[in-house]
Amino acid sequence: MKIVIIGNGISGITTARYIRKQSDHEILVISAESDHFFSRTALMYIYMGHMKYEHTKPYEDWFWSKNRIELKNAYIQNIDFDSKKLFTVKGEEISYDKLVISTGSITNKFDWPGQDLKGVQGMVTKQDVELMEENTIGVTDAVVVGGGLIGIEMAEMLHSRNIHVHILVRDNVYWGGILPKQEAELVGRHIAEHKMNLITKSELKEIIGDENGKVKSIITKDGKEIKCGFVALTAGVSPNISLVKDSKLETDRGILVNDYLETNIKDVYSLGDCAQFRNPKENHPPVEQLWYTGKMQGRALANTICGTKTKYDRGIWFNSAKFLDIEYQTYGIMLKEPLSDEDTFYWEHKDGKISMRANFDKADGALRGFNFFGIRFKQTVADDWIRNKKDIGYCISNLNKGFFDPEFYKSYHKDIVEHFNKVQPQYQVKIAKKKFLVF
Amino acid sequence: MKIIRNIGLTIFLICFAVFLSLPFLGKYKLTEKTFTENFSDVNQQKVLKPALKDVFDKEYNSNVAFFNDYNKAFDDANKDFRDKKEWDKVINDNKILDITKSSSIGFVKDNSTLLFIICFLISALGGIMYMVPALFIKPVAGIKNDYIFKRGITSRGIIAFCFAAFLIIFYIFLYQKPAYLSNWVLLMDGLSNTLTGGNSSQWFLYGFLYCLVMSVMSVRMYIKYRNNNYQLLRTTSVLFFQIAFAFMIPNILTNLQLPSMDFKNIWPLDYTFFFDYRLTELTSNGMLGYWMLGWGIFLIIVGVPVMVYFFGKRWYCSWVCGCGGLAETLGDPFRQLSDKSLKAWKFERIIVHSVLVFAVVMTIAVLYTFFTGSPKLLGIDTYSIRQTYSFGIGFMFAGAIGTGFYPVMGSRVWCRFGCPLAAYLGIVQRFKSRFRITTNGAQCISCGNCSTYCEMGIDVRAYAQNGENIIRSSCVGCGICAAVCPRGVLKLENLAEEGRFDAYIRPEEKAF
Ligand SMILES: Cc1cc2nc3c(=O)[nH]c(=O)nc-3n(C[C@H](O)[C@H](O)[C@H](O)COP(=O)(O)OP(=O)(O)OC[C@H]3O[C@@H](n4cnc5c(N)ncnc54)[C@H](O)[C@@H]3O)c2cc1C
Ligand code: SF4
Ligand code: SF4
């Protein structure tokens, strides 16, 4: 059987690797972006000089032929689902028995005037980073439009080149659509600490170019003009489905799939950033644009393709990010407001750069999720507690079982426990003893 | 702040230029008096004096000319014995370093204190002025590896190769032709006299430079990693062990006319530990000598395995060892240059374990000769084995390649490919230890920071992205992978042995 995968990102590659682990099927991975799989999450580090492109490749180049995963650098222009054939831009014809579509994302653009000027761009691909290198030469001021995760990464990149950054966000705090107020403010303060200019409650109206077609300033909806030589568009990404837009394949925002990552066409599957679940779990996004989820979906899909039909199950939600110097880890579904049946506990260190939040069931105290800023926490512990509905009192008392900061770091456990006992006086928890030497 | 930084750099470069010019400066005049001070043996004097008569009192403007004449005279004096094969009469040690030092006249000699201050103290100050402004330029704590792969010095640019060449040449002269460095050694006499009660040798100079370079580069570590207590403590620890144990204590012991010993240096890194002259020295110094011998052996047999069991090999490699200390200070800007390929790992295992075997065989041979008095073991001259090891491993590998290749192959070339003690510690770490780098579930985003900044060339990501703990014999536990990971995925820790090899599997995937 010949399995063809379009897109060599994390989801396509994971699928290929796990198919190979279980079977001898012929595997072909096609992508137009790069010859080899690389880590999209590391793009920023290439620009900042922490790494080179080579370092972002998780597998050495010999890995693919050794595992008989054939790679092809080509752009697919057309799919004929009836005859099971793909057509590249160059007119090559490739046939398949089973097709996996994992074409990833593209940058959102909202038809802003001037969005195609030179010096205006998003960051999703390797080529974007190369372009950014070019576009930021000689730039002193830049505007980042939209304050999500890619936004803060681009801000950090620009900052590393001593470019003064203005971040434009729609809400009244940074990433207010996702983060609870206190956390959003914590990040906001940290952005200010880095001398970046966070402009809240403002939206982009238009981008103005100079006589050479290069951006020279932007105008916000409230009429303010900001001079800048570079504009980063980071108001989210959306599924890259132009390839299948007007075909038999059912799409909405993304390619519609069921829990088995099957599309409406037999032998055609889709996963990763470009897929959209028909029936997402409650409070879960229908399009999962994450590294981890791409990986998990790929593993489930490989099983299905190899004959063991396997449902993709996200399990307990988790994610992490880094806002400049502050790391963020989250476990469970943590929205900007606790759900109606939830209570929340928030602690913040007096310096305002470290915090934790725990949401729990109002009725029985069962832990629902954590947010950590500036504290590392073990996934195994958090997952276990949330899954098994551990009581919040128990969790706070046992936080030290999950702390994952490097050795010799200060522990804030005592502080957290004291604060918890103060704001939740019905609990009077103590720090659980941790064995010094575990035999 | 940028101005201070540039001034610091300028000061450093000027001082460094002065330092580099010293071997080419100065005049030399050997007097008969100096000669007799160095060769007190009357028989030797009788042979050498006539041969050296043309050299005496002649003023030389360069050390090269001086060496030529002096060595020639020396050879002439020995020629007779050699021709007659009277090997016992041949004078092997020409004491050229001491002779050159004491024959030095003029500028360097007259200004040695001033030059000491310029070359070492002011240059160090310049270096510090260069580093400290970082605190103000980037006032928010957090590890910044910006520009590392965009600057020549840290990404194998031409300047990096020049620096490597300089280091290699330095080591060659230090080990093989120290007399050329006599003017440098000369600067150290004052300090050496205070500490050891004698004049400086090239090794005293080396020890001092080692401490100085480590101290200055520690300032950089303290600034760069100021948000990370593990790094701060570890840096302090290696610095302490270098200055106190490797430098001060041995020199003070020498001053007290006791056998000098670096109490933290462990065989087989300290490959001369079982050499006859050291055993004789220790056994002829009463209780203290025996205690030192016992301590050395205790470290090998008990210290290493017990400490590695509880803490991993890091207790030595990243907290105590001098080679590690230099790698973690001077070498830190180059850590990302280590080769992460599978091929490199294969070479590493073969080479490092071969060196360990070589060290053991060499030591057995040397001990055999020590106890039996027979110079040959299985027909091979034990002295030549020992010489081969000293030259090949001690000088070439540990010195010239180990440090010289910092700017090309990363900071731990010696520790990774060559150090026999690391191999021994590593075997214990791999098979019987509580140490591991724990991977935090499925949080890894495969970004590659950890692998890139692992100085031992371990592909940390390969484990982390599979949810596996990192347990590798070569891991020196520097903690940098965990420090640079942007997602908080890695933690160095000592936990119960059981389960250390278990990978994380999501509960949803257990059935797969
Ligand atoms: C800057 C940045 C930072 C991120 N950081 C994080 C993070 O910290 N944590 C996290 O969880 N997630 C992060 N993400 C999201 C994460 O990277 C994505 O969710 C993930 O890479 C998606 O993988 P994928 O395999 O679905 O698609 P992609 O990795 O996007 O792969 C799709 C591939 O398909 C190719 N392709 C598309 N169409 C065609 C065609 N017609 N013919 C041939 N090839 C085609 C594309 O060129 C591309 O190479 C980040 C994303 C970006 C852009
Ligand atoms: S694996 Fe991590 S701790 Fe071990 S040597 Fe490499 S960087 Fe250091
Ligand atoms: S640095 Fe962290 S996130 Fe990046 S590859 Fe290594 S373990 Fe994974």
From TrEMBL, chain A:
Cofactor needs: FAD
Taxonomy, superkingdom: Bacteria
Sequence ranges assigned to domain FAD/NAD(P)-binding in this UniProt record: 1-285
Pfam families assigned to the protein according to its UniProt record, in alphabetical order: Pyr_redox_2
Organism classification: Bacteria, Pseudomonadati, Bacteroidota, Sphingobacteriia, Sphingobacteriales
PANTHER family cross-referenced by the UniProt entry: NITRITE REDUCTASE [NAD(P)H] (PTHR43429:SF3), PYRIDINE NUCLEOTIDE-DISULFIDE OXIDOREDUCTASE DOMAIN-CONTAINING (PTHR43429)
Gene3D superfamilies tied to this protein: FAD/NAD(P)-binding domain
Family classification: Belongs to the FAD-dependent oxidoreductase family.
A GO MF label: oxidoreductase activity
InterPro entries named in the record: FAD-bd_OxRdtase, FAD/NAD-bd_sf, FAD/NAD-binding_dom
Name used for this protein in its record: NADH dehydrogenase
Keywords: FAD, Flavoprotein
TrEMBL record, chain B:
Superkingdom field: Bacteria
Pfam families: Fer4_10 (PF13237), Fer4_5 (PF12801)
GO CC terms in record: plasma membrane
Regions that span the bilayer: 7-26, 114-137, 158-176, 203-223, 235-253, 288-311, 350-371, 391-408
Gene3D superfamilies: 3.30.70.20
Molecular function GO labels: 4 iron, 4 sulfur cluster binding; metal ion binding
Statement: the UniProt record of this protein carries the keyword 4Fe-4S: yes
Coiled-coil spans in chain: none
UniProt domain 4Fe-4S ferredoxin-type: residue ranges: 435-463, 466-495
Keyword set, alphabetical order: 4Fe-4S, Electron transport, Iron, Iron-sulfur, Membrane, Metal-binding, Transmembrane, Transmembrane helix, Transport
Protein name according to UniProt: FeS-binding protein
